[in-house]
Amino acid sequence: MQANFMIGLGSKARVPIISFSATSPSLSSLQSQYFVRATLNDSAQVPAIKAIVQAFGWREVVLICVDNEYGNGVIPSLTSALQEVDTHVTYRSAIHLSATDDQIVKELYKLMTMSTRVFIVHMFTPLGSRLFTKQMQMSTLDPSAIDSMQGVLGVKPHVPRTKELDSVKIRWKKKFQEEYPINEISELNIFGLRAYDAASALAIAVEKLSVGNFSFQKTNISRDSISLESIRVSPIGPNILHSLLSTQFRGLTGHFQIVDGQLHSSAFQIVNVNGEGEKGVGFWTQENGIVRRPNSTSKVNLRAITWPGESTSVPKGWVLPTNGKKLKIGVPVKEGFSEFVKVMRDPITNTTKVTGYCIAIFDAVMATLPYAVPYEYVPFETPDGNAAGNYDELISQVYFQKYDAVVGDTTILANSLTSMLTVQQLKPTITDINELIRTGQRGSQKGGIAAAFDEIPYMKLFLAKYCSKYTAVQPTYKFDGFGFVFPKHSPLVSDVSMQILNVTEGDQMAKIEQAWFGQNSSCPGLNSSLSSDSIGVDSFWGLFLIAGVASSAALIIRMATFLYENTDTLVQLDPPASVWRKIKALATLFDNKDLSSHNFRKSEMGDRSGTNGMDAATASPATNYPPSPSSLSVQTQSNFAFSRDQATPASEYGDQMSPNGQTPPEIAFGIELANSKQELKVPEVVHVNN
């Protein structure tokens, strides 16, 4: 109220109103060009507070402010900034400046019943000291203000230590002791330093003008008037304002510069109340965020912090409420696939028991949390025991705060990722694992089904029992699996998520699956080969039969044709020839190249036309007696050399023919040469008598 009055006074008189203590953000909205704030706006510390909350991962906070314009002014900007880092303000406590001790204690008891344990306090020093003292008195007798604030983190404008600052402090103590010799010497706080810099800035601005007339112009308003209209107007006030806004210098608090009518924001120091005072643990700058030193750009952690209770571990920011309230965990009421979730009611005691695969995992996860969380399962059902709705309606109960969480076979889809953490459930095509069996495997043409499309957990459960008759086929459409549903910003989410990984990746998960899904003794593992659809040798018996029959028929036909074509050769053998000699002769004939074939005749014609004076290997004239083995050297560029009787003319295509058209008694052999310049040993030539 004082600042508003003075700002209005300065506007009428056209003189700058310089304030070193008016920090309320609401004052900036007055749009008075003559108001110069030579201190920081309260909102200037909001980014530093946001950075601290984000650095420690706190997702819920409680704001405790003085119930006046000073406390309310920072609420909008602080709430908006915390939302940017996904931190929710769960409660706002407004304590009046004139509140009694009983009223403060009552408000503190209300805060104790809540789960949030991160409190952002924004109030004047006298009220803040009473708040911390009363909080400490709830567990300790008559603590001092500093004792009650042990472990508290705070932010304050960073004032660099300089020789000028030390000199002013020495002169201040000397002056104070001279004027108030019996009083305890008071240290200069930030407001005293801001006042010194504000006075220095005004002196510099006036000296730059070099004027001596500071009189006010007279007005026609009556002297008896007490309204603002009676205020005289300064002729040089606008000039002083312009000179002040352009003034820059290094003051006691750091660099002094007025930007947009207020002091330019500088660095903030992060302090930790410890022992008899405070210790600096880091800094926040607009350029680099949280750093260990004000002029550093290194993103290192803060120095060691002693938290409330002399703990060195970072508080998780929430605890279970002290009122003993249990978490209400909603579970679906369903038919079929009871291995996942099953709700049973005892008709005698009227108590409800919830079991199943999903329930067992949730129990294991909650048991591994480093703190105890009391909870109870509440079936989502009507008074007569039927389901109260579908899965979408069940999930929405978390948003409406009927349930603190939902546990069941709820599938995580892209659309568990909204502000309400809603998830949708693919309605099972098969509501009971015996449905396919009851249809008698008749198929879709006979009133049954040809295939079932469902989620993998249901399929695994079904195949675990009926693996010999059914199998899973591709493609598989990927989902994120089953999940537990918690409200957004729930402090349990991060810890539960971490413990889910520990449980599912450990040995306990296999035991849970074995207990609820088991394995049919007659069924192999789901990942092993199944007799109903596995591929083995017997799967190809038809192909083997066809190939065998075709190959056998081809072999028989070829042998029959060969024997028929070489009947004369067998007949011409000497009668005393043994069976082995006959077989050997047939084998030799079978292995001999067919000189009458098209490919061979084409090759020989090429050899005749493309060789330069190829030497032909000659044998002895045809006789009725086999010649002795001989060796000869053959020089050729061809891949083959042929041996033939020189006395017998060759046919057009190189075939040896007798004058009467019969095959001569001497048979030629083709020999493949490994090297065209190589010496060749000609084997013994087989003679067949006519």
TrEMBL record:
Spans annotated as Disordered: 600-666
Compartments reported by the entry: Membrane
Pfam families: ANF_receptor
Ranges annotated as spanning the membrane: none
Ionotropic glutamate receptor C-terminal domain ranges (all copies): 326-519
SUBUNIT field: May form heteromers.
Protein name: Glutamate receptor 2.3
Gene assigned in the entry: GLR2.3_2
